[in-house]
Amino acid sequence: MKEKYKDFWMDCEWAEKEYVSKPVTEELVVEIEKELGYKLPLSYIELMKIQNGGIPNRACYPTTEATSWAEDHIAITGMFGIGKEKNSSLCGEYGSEFWSKEWGYPKIGVYICDCPSAGHDMIALDYTECGSQGEPKVVHIDQEHNYKVTFLAESFEEFIQNLKSDEEFENNDSDENSGSISESFSDDF
């Protein structure tokens, strides 16, 4: 997996500050899974062993229906690492539980990615059908549309394999949000 995803993460100071947590250990995974109440997908754990959270170089995912972000895709700002020391980690101050308790997001699983809307949509591992120990689907939840759930992928592995660059959508969007996401992140933060 390391070779397959060696160029997965963007290298920038803002990602280091907000998302990148200390390296993953088996003990940390057990602790975080216990706190969350869900078994994390193996593909998620393996990706976090390469780098524990951050901003993907490819941060868009195609959709078959419109969202508050765009007509044909969603975008993510960052992916939460396994831990609690960073605000944007699974059990950090703005981690998975925060979105359910403070913003009213449905308790369907684990919130793993935030989006450029600053809290108005999120990406989650949806355990509704598989139970807390199963292999969750990946969904987009849109707070702006009454917490509408949009299916994205059957698994986390499928989700990360099908992430696209924002440039692949720039010519297709007439949406005001269609600017380059990667341009938003520089070392000036």
Automatic annotation (TrEMBL):
Task: Give the InterPro entries listed for this entry.
Answer: Knr4/Smi1-like_dom, Knr4/Smi1-like_sf
Coiled coil (residue ranges)? none
Per the UniProt record, the source organism is: Phocoenobacter atlanticus subsp. atlanticus
Q: Which segments show compositional bias classed as Low complexity?
A: 177-189
Q: Where is the composition biased (Acidic residues)?
A: 167-176
Q: What is this protein called?
A: SMI1/KNR4 family protein
Q: Where would I find the Knr4/Smi1-like domain in this sequence?
A: 23-162
Question: Which superkingdom?
Answer: Bacteria
Task: For the region Disordered, give the residue spans.
Answer: 165-189
